[in-house]
Amino acid sequence: MIRATAKLIMAATLLFFLSLTSLSAQTADNSPGGFDLRQHEGNAWVDSVFNSLSLKERIAQSMVIRTFSNRDRAFYDSISRIIIKYNIGGLCFFQGDPQQQAQLTKYWQVLSETLLLITIDAEWGLGMRLKNAWSFPKQMTLGAVTDNELIYKMAYKIGEHCKSIGTQMNFAPVVDINSNPANPVINFRSFGEDPQQVAIKGAAYIRGLQDAGVMACAKHFPGHGDTDSDSHYTLPLLNHSRQVIDSIDLVPFRAAMAAHVSGLMTAHLYIPALDARKDMATSISDKAIDSLMKQVMGFEGLAITDALDMKGVTAAHQIGEIEKMAYLAGNDILLLPLAINAAINKIIKAIDQGEISREEVDARCRKILTYKYITGLNTFDYDDIDIDKVPALVNDAESELITRQIYEQAVTIVKNQRDLLPLQRLDTLRIASVAIGSSAVSAFQKTLELYAPVTHFQAGDAPTAAEISTLRKHLQDYNLIIISLESPRLLPRNNYSVTQAALQLIAEIKSLPSHTVLDIFGNAYLLKSFADNKDLDAIVMSYENNDLVKDVSAQMLFGATG
Q1: 119 shares its domain with 86
Q2: Shared domain check, 488 and 348
Q3: Which range marks the domain in which residue 314 is found?
Q4: How far apart are CA 67 and CA 307, in angstroms?
Q5: Is 260 helix (H, G, I), strand (E, B) or coil?
Q6: 386 plus 434 within the same structural domain
Q7: Measuring CA to CA, which residue among 92, 103, 164 is closest to residue 129?
Q8: In the chain, how many domains are there?
Q9: What is the per-residue pLDDT across 195-232, written as a single tens digit (0 to 9) for each?
Q10: N or C: which terminal CB in the chain sees fewer CB atoms within 10 Å?
Q11: How far apart are alpha carbons 559 and 14 in whole angstroms?
Q12: Other CB atoms closer than 10 Å to residue 469's CB: what's the count?
């Protein structure tokens, strides 16, 4: 207790001085195969740390708890108390700011008796969770890229961003095969529907991230792509046969293993072909994890649960029992446990009752410590994170360039009747642009006018019948109308938030005698809304809804990119 109190005083003092410190970022083993666990057996640092831990602390190394960097001091103190009391394995950061997260990481690393594994969900970069940090393209967009080296470069850059704020593991990439367009949770987060392409692109992401010195975690084992419900709120049923699981769902996970992925995240799914026991999620099933993942497939890295506070497991099982079941099933990391003390006590009781051996508990702790060593935590110093440089490091020019290059490859001309695109003979065109979902001239419209005179119109997400009629009259004097659909959301609820009124406006415009181009800034599955597209001369799929892709897409219409 004296030792813990001294560390708390030291950490509180350091919290005051955090903003004054600035030195180089930590290093890690970036050589090919550096994240191959077998290359780091018998490590003296691992042995030293392991031997300093009690049984409870060895179990607690499997616990990675939820935290934020946008809360108040009372919240931060509550996290500090957990770190001191249990000597937990790590933290998973959610919403906040990168500079504040870096400060808190330094604070908690100094406070912790055993260095913490700092993790985050940053599939498309830190901007997925943090404000004031760069967001790269989503994985659906990456699925349209032909040069997978761009995926590698993007993941490497994400790794650099993670390291700059002291993060050792990114829970990415998603390697689920999104074979169900109605999937409410994976969807645009997947590379696509082709198992081989998902495997190739996932491996490129993994190599990039880990070559930057940050652990990758492929998810959601054994495959969450063909579900129509969200495991955050229920336990989805996946009725795939074992043959389908082996030949389709597991293909990207095998590729991830070949790329020496550090972790596989286990999904909260009910898959009778793997384990038919009532309410038995794969994340807490020994048949899915210990048997299939570890014994059959030979995975030697970290088996990591999906969040244990999700309804996919909490709806049918008691907290404390959930954590014990997940641990006994073979998981090395219990992500976002709800009852640390109860879980540790239940696991110790399971040891006493012979449900799991002390040797297995020790082996899991050693594995976690070995990965901490691989990422450079053995040489960590609180000065390793340069707070002052964080804003520039996570919003650098190279990240914008890589993002632009990805969009230039990904933006797709789906239909191009009579080779209308790229637009030519501009002197013969009277061009109007209609931005649906924009209340002012959009970035797309601003780029259009760099190439030709364009008259701009805007329409809301749900234009009224009177507004549609008025707009139709205004457009009759133009011989080319470019419609930009800028209202979509990426998830399928309510037709990706594209209203019937918006679809009616598009139908009215395409009925005019002018040539019509539709540019969709949203989910590729929106194309089903335009299956009857005979009156549209050209359709462009731009995948996302931000100013950078709008600039790229507008330029492509004139042949300046693509």
Answers
A1: yes
A2: no
A3: 2-19+35-398
A4: 13
A5: coil
A6: no
A7: 92
A8: 2
A9: 999 999 999 999 999 999 999 999 999 999 999 999 99
A10: N
A11: 55
A12: 11
